[in-house]
Specification:
By secondary structure, the chain is mainly beta. It is built from 5 helices and 28 strands. The strands form 6 sheets. Strands 1, 20, 21, 22, 23, 24, 25, 26, 27 and 28 form a 10-stranded mixed beta sheet that branches. This is TolB-like 6-blade propeller-like.
């Protein structure tokens, strides 16, 4: 596998360059993300308006969700469409997909904000299978978009947000309590855990309501991370959820872990009534957009806003890669505009896959293929 070969060679030469008495630098090794090619998505059968989440299915399919035109689309990594489950096609089960899970594909599990339920479909047969009504605590709610959602062997792991506190107010982080809930297959809450970290609780001004928590599952474990506390936590994947491991995140010359807030508290109501929307300045912290794990690596993609006003505003993305075999971190030295690279999907053999379907830069959607390459001195 080319990723393994590149990163192993970098790690090997790093090791022989040090004597046993020398300590390694705390900063990660630098690599470059090199885009190999782009494949245009063939939208002949159906259209997906913008995107929110993208996920890899095995090593040949990509699933994409949209909340603008509520649907989950399935495409081959070659760019060919093969299926779509769209809200408009299922009047018996319309939905607004906060998130979805395809780990048991062709079964498709959709976390529906509208009905506070999990809707189950067969994506290949285009069939609605079942609905699980969630017994959500009265002080919690499913996020409009981006709730972390994972299907495990005996239920569902779901991120819920406060239904009481304005998410621009510091109390949203201080008093919301647990963020991750486990529901059994009947939709009943069995357990909850993981509050916001102190790095977010101690902020006095308003924080931008971005997706602070990232999650992924691999093998029999679940990894979760709030980047501001610079830790990846690993739990067993089934109830009761026990902390197995903590992996420290490395320092970076590119990614800023510190939370960025406004000087005063700005409410959502103020933003709404001003008519200026996001022109009311609430700076956006750097954050993790995705976390991904396979046998050899954990890969994190970051989103980093320059917090400038249009037309100078932009968001850059770079990667942290953790070599699980050698317990060593790497990061890409060449951040890329998210409108050029898109969202990270996963890894197939020697290739990293990204999906760019924002429709902000051009009318087409693209699958970008890339590799990690040592930096030549």
């Amino acid at each position: 596998m080319m990723i393994t070969r590149y990163l192993f060679s970098i790690a090997f030469f790093s090791l022989i360059a040090c004597t046993a008495s020398e300590e390694k630098s705390a900063y990660p090794n630098q690599v470059d993300l090199v885009i190999v090619d782009s494949l245009m998505v063939e939208e002949n059968s159906f259209f997906t308006n913008s995107l929110h989440h993208v996920k890899m299915i095995g090593d040949s399919l990509i699933a994409i969700s949209s909340i603008r035109t509520p649907a989950i689309s399935i495409i081959q990594i070659s760019g060919k469409q093969i299926a779509q489950i769209a809200s408009k096609d299922f009047p018996i089960a319309p939905f607004l997909p906060s998130s979805f899970d395809v780990s048991e594909y062709p079964k498709l599990y959709i976390l529906d904000k509208r009905s506070e339920s999990i809707l189950i479909f067969d994506a290949q047969r285009q069939q609605f299978l079942d609905k699980v009504k969630l017994n959500i605590p009265s002080d919690k709610r499913i996020k409009l978009a981006g709730s972390k959602f994972l299907k495990n062997s005996d239920g569902y792991i779901i991120e819920l947000e406060s239904a009481i506190y304005d998410n621009y107010h510091p109390d949203y982080f201080r008093k919301s309590g647990d963020q991750v809930f486990f529901f059994n297959e009947d939709g009943v809450v069995i357990d909850s855990f993981l509050e916001f970290p102190k790095e977010l609780k101690e902020v006095n001004g308003s924080l931008s309501p971005i997706e602070y928590l990232v999650s992924a599952k691999y093998d029999q474990s679940l990894i979760l991370s709030f980047p501001q506390e610079q830790i990846i936590r690993r739990y067993n994947q089934s109830n009761p959820f026990k902390l197995i491991e903590e992996i420290p995140l490395p320092p970076s010359n590119i990614f800023d872990y510190s939370p960025k807030s406004s000087e005063t508290i700005i409410s959502f109501q103020e933003i709404f009534e001003s008519g200026k929307g996001l022109d009311i300045a609430v700076p956006r912290s750097h954050y993790f957009n995705t976390i991904y794990e396979n046998k050899n690596f954990i890969i994190i993609t970051t989103w980093m806003s320059n917090n400038e006003e249009a037309p100078n505003n932009k968001i850059l993305s770079h990667l942290f890669t953790f070599d699980k075999i050698n317990y060593e971190w790497f990061e890409t030295s060449n951040p890329k505009n998210i409108l050029d690279i898109g969202k990270f999907v996963g890894v197939v053999n020697d290739t990293l896959y990204f999906y760019e379907g924002s429709l902000m830069k051009h009318d087409e959607k693209y699958i970008k293929r890339a590799i990690l390459k040592p930096i030549e001195e």
